[in-house]
Amino acid sequence: MSEHAQTIILGGGLTGLSLAQYLEGETLVLEANERPGGLCRSFTKDGFTYDIGGHILFSRDSELLAQLTSWLEGNLLEQRRNNQIWFKDRFVKYPFENGLYALEKEDIFQCLMGFLERSDAEPSNLEEWCRFRFGEGISGKYLIPYNDKIWKRPAKDISVHWVERIPSPPTADVVKAAIGIETEGYTHQLNFLYPERGGIESLTNALAQGVNLVTGFRASAVKKIATGWEVSNGQDTYACRRLISTIPVMDLATCLDGAPDDAKSACAALQYNSVILVMLGVGHTGLADKSAIYIPDPAILPHRVCYMSYFSPFNAPEGSSHLVAEITVPPGDALLSASEDELVGRVAGDVSELCGISQGEIIASQAQRIKHAYVVYDRDYLSNRARVYSWLDGLGLYTCGRFGSFEYLNMDQCLERARDLAAELNKE
Q1: CA 134, CA 364: separation in Å to the nearest integer?
Q2: How many CB atoms lie within 10 A of CB 115?
Q3: Tens of pLDDT along 217-240?
Q4: Interstrand relation of 398-399 and 237-245 (parallel, antiparallel or unpaired)
Q5: Could you tell me the residue ranges of all domains in the chain?
Q6: Domain covering 95-185 assigned CATH 3.20.14 in the classification
């Protein structure tokens, strides 16, 4: 079978579906999984709904926020962020530099003096940048251990080209926090929107409405033809004038014939992490008083725990609440093949103290493994990415989205990129 469309979009995640909404003309979205959504999918077990991590809706762009609101047609709650950090058996306000007053006095002193006396040497990696921007105390106690944990490699092996996305605290705020005066960091995320019902997947479900979407189509061959492009999964074939890929770039590269050796080696060198999700549901509302807990302690398996019942009370059955723990792992890690019972038992044991639950209280649990979750900005990232996209850009196709463009983009950035690319293409 061969069918034609003006534009084919590979991948039916947030970026692919929003592109389809923004683009003019006939558009076809081809999605490998049986249901669309990508990283914006939600899962339900025994009445508990949870997401792939702590997805929230926010943007400094009022026009984009208005568009999000219209897509969800009133299925929205506005919540105030209440993130905490678990540090030395106590909760510290997030971000860490705004919660210094909760620390022991010696730790407060070390964090404050480290911040005031930080080095002005030009940093060449993330570890050095943390000390350059936050000082030795804040970096050594929280920032560096947390980054080591989430990236699954030392912070000194992470590039600094992206650090402008980490807000820098004013000196006055750090001093205020040290002496116990309340301050807020990351103010653009302080209040956020979240779907009232259906989890974050309700957004991608809304985006999928009216879109020409084929699911269960995993592209195995992508070929340039005289009139544009041809995409096949070995059984069905679709042709188009214009091709946009939002699927992981390494998957796209395997579909394209004639990749030069330089591009192949660079693509193989691109680094990413997978994520394991473990949901724990309890028959009481004790897991609904925080939005998320960040955990720098390497002895505790998850790096973050999100309280999904805080995001919306409709994510859990009445009188119940739940959390989803996130564990980053590099491809091939042994945890990816661990049994669900093993993962649930390990996480339940690790978070019992900080979340105030016992394993006997758990009435529902589930584990999920997501292959492509985090783009890793290792120190060779810029050169490897440039080599890959120099080849792809020369082919005349378009890429967009977190793994399509291989950039660590938040949801609002994915939507912005999709909107801007569609605006550019609509002028053609």
Answers
A1: 40
A2: 23
A3: 999 999 999 999 999 999 999 999
A4: parallel
A5: 2-38+200-270+378-426, 95-185
A6: no
Dist. CA 370–CA 340, nearest whole Å: 14
Joined together, the tokens standing for residue 282 give 């309890």
Sign (positive or negative) of CA dihedral 24, 27, 29, 35:
positive
List the one residue out of 90, 84, 112 whose CA is nearest residue 180. 112
If we measure between CA atoms, which residue out of 97, 96, 146 comes closest to residue 126?
A: 146
Pairing of strands 83-87, 42-45: unpaired
Closest C-alpha among 288, 284, 276, 396 to residue 346 = 276
d(CA 145, CA 142): 6
**What token pair was written down for 10?**
């590979």
Q: What is the pTM of this model?
A: 0.95
Q: Which of 343, 277, 353, 340 is nearest to 308 (CA)?
A: 277
Residue from 23, 31, 8, 57 nearest 240 by CA? 8
Amino acid occupying residue 255: C
> What type of residue sits at position 165?
R
For 19, which DSSP code? H
Nearest Cα residue to 178 out of 256, 97, 120: 97
User: Tell me: domain 2-38+200-270+378-426, CATH 3.50.50.60, correct?
Assistant: yes
Looking at the DSSP bridge assignments, the partners of residue 7 are 27, 242
What is the number of other CB atoms lying within 10 angstroms of the CB of residue 55?
Answer: 22
Q: Which residue has the tokens 């939005």?
A: 291
For 354-369, what is each residue's pLDDT tens digit?
Answer: 999 998 999 999 999 9
Q: Does 17 score more than 50 pLDDT?
A: yes
Q: Answer whether 27's CB lies under 8 Å from 6's CB.
A: yes
| CA–CA gap between residue 117 and residue 114 (Å, rounded) | 5
